[in-house]
Every structure is written in structure tokens, then in C-alpha cells.
Amino acid sequence: MATERPVPPLPPEEMPPRRRRRGAILFRRALFRIILLAIVIVGLLLGWNYYKEQTFKGIIGHDTGLTDEVVMEKLQSMGQLVTYSYEYSNVREIKDSKQLFGWNIPGTTHTIQLKYNGTIKVGYEVSEIKVSVDNETKTIYVTLPEPKVTDNYIDMDHLSYAEQNNIFNPISGEELTIELDTIKSEALEKAENAGIFDKAKGSAKEQIQGLFEAFDGYTVKFTE
Predict the structure, then answer these.
(1) Global pTM?
(2) Would you tell me the crossing angle of helices 173-193 and 196-211 to the nearest 10 degrees?
(3) Choosing a second label site near 175 at 20 to 30 A (CA), which of 12, 60, 130, 193?
């Protein structure tokens, strides 16, 4: 019994013309796809390198390193720096009478009762903060001014107000305004005694330290 042997493929020059053309077309298509894929990969690599270069250049220059201007721009992105808030609340009763020769006149007393909540905010104007960069030691020096009160207000939407008016000594709007100002002044004095400015400075240092962590490799030092 005869054994069948596989027929070896014909060399290209002996293949029929139609088969040779089809093979050439498939080869050109495959080559085109490989070239196109290579162009796309090279384009992506070039684009990524450009992006990294521009991003890096925006933070640290190739020649001069990190600049004071770049650090200050980063700091200014915070806007006004509020670093500590002090909450206060109380109930206050005010009585007032007409007087004659230093004595209260009977029947002329009116009463105001206030239940209030207030907030004192302490912080810095960013424009008053000074920064300086030493690229040799990779150190950012920050000089903070003295913190100051940026706001002190009573929440008027939740102010509880009760009064007992007197026809002989009516309550005036000016009296209430003066009393609220007195409350805020007394609250500020208590906040100062509680060390609100020291706490605000400590909080500011923490916030700035965290913000400047974006400058990799640099340390932050605070100067007086």
C-alpha cells in the first residue's frame, strides 16, 4: 500500500500569479499595521515626556530650581488663611432704669434677655507671609506675621431675644447694638486669655507644612 506524502509548498516564483498577488497584499497590510502601531506608540511616549517636562518645569526649573515666586503662588492658592476658630455662647440679661441723682427711679426698669452663639476667627493675610527658598539646602523659609482677628460675629439667625419693655423707659435699637458689641469684646478678651493667637500660629504652621509637601525633597523652616 502506497504512503501519501505531503506536497511541499511551491516557491513564490512558481506560485500562480493570483496567489502571489494575494500574498503580497496581505504582507503589505501587515507591514502597514506594524508601522502605524509603532507611530502611535512613539507619539504617546513623546506626548507623555512633554507633559512630564512641562509639569516639572512648572514647579522646579531645570536651572534655577524652586523659586520664591512659585512657592508664593502655591501659598496664595489658599486665599485668606483662617487657622483657628473660637466658639462662645451664653445667656445675658440686661436691666436698665431711669436715674435721678444716681438712684434708679422705680417703675422705669426694662429688661432684655439674650441667648447667643458667636464665633471668633483668627488667621493671616497670605500677602503678609514671607517666603524664601534655598535650593542648595532644599529649604523653604517661612516668616509668619502676628496672627489677627479676621472675624468676630454673633449668629443673628439663632439669637434668642426676650424683652420686658417699659413705657417710661422704652428699649432702643441702639441699646441692643451696644450690648452685642460688648458681648463680642468680652468674648475676644476671654479668647485671648485662652491662647487663641498661639493656637492660630501653630495651626498655620501645620497647614503650610502640609501645603508645601507638594515640593518633593524640600523641608520647611519657620523663622520669627
Answers:
(1) 0.63
(2) 70
(3) 193
Contact between 187 and 118 under an 8 Å Cβ cutoff? The reply is yes
Dihedral sign for Cα 184, 92, 176, 159, please: positive
Give the number of domains in the chain: 2
Q: What does the pLDDT read at residue 180? A: 93
Q: What is the DSSP string of 140-166?
A: EEEE----EEEEEEE-GGG-EEEEE--
Is 37 part of any domain? yes
Beta bridge pairs of residue 162: 113
* b/e per residue 31-44 (b: at least 16 CB within 10 A): eeeeeeeeeeeeee
pLDDT confidence tier of residue 33, bands split at 50, 70 and 90: confident
Locate 180 and state its grid cell: 452685642
CA 188 to CA 181: how far, in whole Å?
11
